[in-house]
Amino acid sequence: TEAAATQHQLPVDPPAAAPERDLMSKFDALIAERQALIDTGVTDPFAIVMEQVKSPTEAVIAGRDTILLGTYNYMGMTFDPDVIQAGKDALDQFGSGTNGSRMLNGTFRDHMEVEQALRDFYGVSGAIVFSTGYMANLGMISTLAGKGDYVILDADSHASIYDGCKQGYAEVVRFRHNDIADLDKRLGRLPKDAGKLVVLEGVYSMLGDVAPLKEMVAVAKKHGAMVLSDEAHSMGFYGPNGRGVYEAQGCEGDVDFIVGTFSKSVGTVGGFCVSNHPKFEAIRLACRPYIFTASLPPSVVATAAVSIRKLQHAHEKRARLWESARTLHAGLKEMGFRLGTETPDSAILAVILEDQTQAVAMWQALLDGGLYVNMARPPATPAGTYLLRCSLCAEHTPEQIQKVLGMFEAAGRAVGVLA
Ligand code: PMP
Questions:
Q1: What is the ipTM of this complex?
Q2: What is the pTM (predicted TM-score) of this model?
Q3: pLDDT (tens digit, 9 = 90+) per residue, 142-201?
Q4: Do 111 and 192 lie in a common domain?
Q5: pLDDT value at 4 more than 60
Q6: Is residue 16 part of a domain?
Q7: Same structural domain for residues 123 and 64?
Q8: d(Cα 225, Cα 174) in Å, to the nearest integer?
């Protein structure tokens, strides 16, 4: 009736219920801290722009030629002519994007091809590609471990691993970083018949240290747990076939799932999981971060496929990368810098500094001298450390490494880190 309709009409000028609470106000401390840093006159370490990229190891930053020692371009594949050509061809033949999920219209020829390249590279029966490595961890962990299951993870795990746990509602049990006995103890306390997933990383990206995977995987298996290893920072140069730390340490038969990324050694963007599990394909039917997002553009999967196939035989690149890591580690250690690892264990080399002021001053001095490294600070770093993270590339020349050492020495003296 007309009366009922009038009753349901909204008031013309509804009074506000309560003062609006600004949800952005929780960032005030963060904004103030950042501003205080910038007010000291330094370049913002988290707002660098690559104005030009000339090669895997050189870019123009703030108008200056700069050596790149802070990218995850370990194998230098970003400027490989075959990789670039594959991307151009795919753009011409398939267009710029897929406009859909892998489940629907978003699977093109080269999504299939890159999954085959992964199966060949890892020698496994199953490979699933995700839109990023972050989503591969998010998707795999949340889909494997649900309510009532347990995820047992290293305290220094990557954010994507922690987020995967949250999304799956599994019980999370953390053990001390790389501590085999602690892993054993914590697994021993869990119900025998519960589903358990132990999540490990081959190389931990902040300090560049390597996990004792062989021992940890053995402990996991003793307790009847499945194992997922994130080999993001070892692909291409660890193990006889470049599969990662798990291959180098000889535990290929016991790791159930390997997660990796295209954003590091492969040189583009994307993530994946490979496995020999006979039911692995079922992940595609249940995994939300696989289903509810658009698939990678054809040019990306085409470049990734060629890059992975070339990485399989990149023995010379691998040798050069390790040579540079050894030279840089020895040189910095000799100068008196405090490093994240005693020996050159990976392509990441972390210089540990006292506090934010010293780290930023050193970072700025290096940048002014023409060297870019990654600045890392809590909460991303372990134990509240401030780090300058150097990551090597197979395309760094011995001359560049010597130049880098000279830059570290000059900056270290200028800032007072070195006596
Ligand atoms: N796992 C680890 C260990 C990582 O360090 C990263 C990224 N730095 C990722 C996963 C996520 O990879 P992506 O960049 O492909 O999202």
A1: 0.99
A2: 0.94
A3: 999 999 999 999 999 999 999 999 999 999 999 999 999 999 999 999 999 999 999 999
A4: yes
A5: no
A6: no
A7: no
A8: 15
Q: Which regions of 56-104 does DSSP assign to beta strands (E)?
A: 58-61, 64-68
Q: Name the residue with the closest Cα to ligand 1, atom 13.
A: 133
Q: Whose CA is nearest to atom 5 of ligand 1?
A: 205
Residue 156 alpha carbon to ligand 1 centre in Å: 13
Domain termination site, one of 261, 293, 311: 311
pLDDT band at 6 (very low <50, low <70, confident <90, very high): low
Domain shared by 97 and 115, yes or no: yes
Q: What is the DSSP string of 32-64?
A: HHHHHHHHTT---TT---EEEEEETTEEEETTE
CATH number of the domain bearing residue 134: 3.40.640.10
Number of separate domains in the chain: 2
Do the Cβ atoms of 130 and 273 come closer than 8 Å? yes
Q: Is the CB of 80 under 6 A from ligand 1?
A: no
265 lines ligand 1 (CB under 6 A): no
Distance 231 CA to ligand 1 centre (A): 9
Per this entry, what is the length of the chain?
419
Average pLDDT along the chain: 95
Say yes or no: CB of residue 364 within 6 Å of ligand 1: no
Structural tokens at position 392: 């090597």
Are 87 and 199 within one domain? yes
- How does residue 12 score in pLDDT terms, banded at 50, 70 and 90? confident
Residues facing residue 387 across a β-bridge: 352, 376
Ligand 1: centre distance to CA 205 (Å): 9
Residue 157 sits in the same domain as residue 214: yes
Residue 259 within any structural domain of the chain = yes
What span, in angstroms and rounded, lies between the C-alpha atoms of 139 and 114?
Answer: 19
Structural domain that includes position 283 = 80-311
> Is 157's C-beta closer than 6 angstroms to any atom of ligand 1?
no
Out of 129, 141, 160, 230, give the residue to mutate to test ligand 1, the one with the largest number of ligand atoms within 8 Å of its CB: 160
Are 307 and 326 contained in the same domain? no
Shared-domain flag, residues 196 and 322:
no
Give the model confidence (pLDDT) of 210-269 as tens digits.
999 999 999 999 999 999 999 999 999 999 999 999 999 999 999 999 999 999 999 999
Last residue of a domain, one of 282, 311, 340: 311
CA atoms of 281 and 145, how far apart (whole Å): 16
Question: Is the Cβ atom of 391 under 6 angstroms away from ligand 1?
Answer: no
Ligand 1 centroid–CA 290 distance in Å is 16
| Active-site annotation, residues | 205, 233, 264
